[in-house]
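Encode chain A's predicted structure.
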Amino acid sequence: MMCLLRLLLAVVALSLFGGLGGCAAPQFQTNVSLIPPGDESGRACVQICESRRITCEAGCQDRFRACAKAIEPQVEARYGEALAQFENDLGQYAAALRAYETQLSFAWFNSYPYGWGTWGWPWMGPWPGMYFPPPYPVPKMPTRADVRAQLEKSSCQADCGCQPVYEGCFVGCGGQRLSETVCIKNCPPAQ
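Encoded structure for chain A:
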């Protein structure tokens, strides 16, 4: 009876999530195109803007590399902390998994018709019904690359804002900036 209720609950949950899958919000992307100015002085001005953008991006990359090198000692320390936390989480997961499996085995012993009754015998042992995976995720082992990426994201600035400055300079030289927003996923039907 309990397995039937669990099966019914699983079917209802899957149908509900499947039905809501069509209700996802549309995702949009903005495409930017730059139209250069038509006159020669405008194009020369755009070349100056371009060289400034390249210089800005090169400086930004140099600062990012220096920052990434500076946090290298912190990576090892944080990686050790992450491994200790993983070991703790893994121990908790193993204990919770043992408790979950024990609950399942007791449920199998006491379920009809596999326990006492006309269909089964007590010495037959548990009868495995449907398997339900544990309700909690397996802890993920950390890697140095993950720890480094997290530290770089929190400590180092990868984007220095060179592109908006370039676009402003481009428009100031007589160019045009056109932006178009298009739907890329879960788009509504065309009217």
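The longest helix spans residues 72-110.
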